[in-house]
Design a protein that fits this description.
- The chain is 26% helix and 27% strand.
- The protein is α/β, with parallel strands linked by helices and 299 residues long.
- A six-stranded parallel beta sheet has the order 1-4-3-2-5-6, covered by helices on one side.
- Flavin mononucleotide (FMN) binds at residues 190-194, 199, 201, 203, 217, 232, 234, 238-241, 249, 251, 275-278, 284, 288, 291.
- It is an enzyme of class 2 (transferase).
Length: 299
């Protein structure tokens, strides 16, 4: 897959199936668009292109809060997912105040007409341009509109998945994504207390702007140094010890190596429970034994 800033000079001239949207998470709803794109690319002997934005368009419209910078995936994973879904050319353009002022007609003139479009694919609720243009505005093209993909009678959407992650319902998030929600980060030093209670933990510090699941204890898989292990993770402030900073820590099963400075990827499988401020270490250890049993038995 080639990744390019959208400019007339960088655009590939081969016939292409253009898929339009923002695509945070590239969930099962989005994947349906790419499935159709692959079918059409085969029959029309065309490539597949996506024209999208690196950041959330809401940045231009809403009062700032830190969540606006966050995504359901890291940038690296986003590229991997586009590639896995068959995209040949990923064209990125910044969603700015100026861009937001373009009408659907301007967008077609300034962007779509620069490409050699064999077909356009959008979802059932796709709207574009400052005039909220519908697919009607695209009627000069061979246009395919994908019907709503739902789960439990509700639209699969990035917004719904964001809410699931933030509430700790990673099982729902995973079901809607079609893959496991993940966070990657460097393994850094914590308080070195974990080993003294029989549960050493890898403290994972992410540099990506991603949504952190709700504070709590989770069944996870963790990939480190090319191998995947089962583990149990805690997201929280280590309330029992009066901690002040929020950490993501993983007790990795059957693992006894030193891994500071390695990059680890944590796959969230299931929320076990919320964080508890215990009266003493013994109560925490008893609870963690129970967490371990649940995490080991989870399939
Ligand atoms: C599976 C798991 C469950 C945990 N549950 C709690 C909890 O309920 N309350 C709490 O205060 N800390 C909890 N912790 C965090 C521990 O307090 C923390 O791992 C320990 O203090 C070690 O910290 P350190 O990595 O900074 O040395 C949990 C940690 C793990 C791995
Ligand atoms: N569940 C779905 N079924 C069919 N098409 C979808 C679905 N979700 C999104 N699409 C389509 O995918 C493209 C990208 O959509 P968009 O990035 O707005 O995703 P979204 O999940 O709807 O996001 P948000 O929750 O932020 O509204 C659009 O063309 C949209 O219509």
């Amino acid at each position: 897959m080639k990744v390019r800033k959208f400019k007339e000079s960088t655009v590939d001239k081969a016939p292409t199936i253009l898929v339009l949207g923002y695509f945070d998470g590239i969930h099962r709803g989005h994947q349906a668009l790419f499935e159709k794109a692959r079918d059409l690319a085969d029959t029309k002997n065309a490539t597949i292109s996506v024209l999208t934005f690196p950041e959330n368009p809401s940045i231009v419209f809403s009062k700032f809060n830190e969540n606006l910078l966050k995504h359901l995936t890291s940038d690296k994973k986003r590229l991997q997912l586009f590639e896995k879904n068959g995209v040949d050319f990923l064209y990125l353009t910044d969603f700015t105040s100026h861009f937001a002022k373009l009408t659907s007609h301007d967008f077609i003139e300034n962007y779509l007409k620069k490409l050699n479009i064999a077909a356009v694919i959008v979802g059932f609720d796709y709207k574009f341009g400052s005039d909220n243009g519908t697919v009607k505005a695209l009627s000069d093209y061979d246009i395919y509109q994908i019907p709503q993909i739902s789960d439990s009678n509700e639209k699969i959407s990035s917004t719904r998945i964001r809410k699931a992650v933030l509430s700790g319902d990673v099982e729902l998030a995973n079901q809607l994504l079609g893959y496991h929600y993940e966070l990657s980060g460097l393994v850094v030093h914590g308080e070195a207390r974990g080993r003294t209670i029989g549960y050493p933990t890898a403290n994972v510090e992410s540099k990506d702007y991603q949504y952190m699941p709700a504070t709590g204890v989770y069944v996870v898989d963790i990939e480190v140094a090319g191998k995947c292990y089962r583990g149990m993770a805690s997201i929280g402030y280590n309330d029992t010890f009066g901690g002040q900073t929020k950490t993501l820590e993983v007790n990795i099963f059957e693992f006894h190596d030193e891994i500071y400075g390695e990059t680890a990827t944590v796959y969230f499988l299931k929320l076990i429970r919320g964080m508890v401020k215990f009266d003493g270490v013994e109560a925490l250890i008893t609870q963690m034994k129970n967490d371990e049993k649940i995490a080991r038995e989870f399939v």
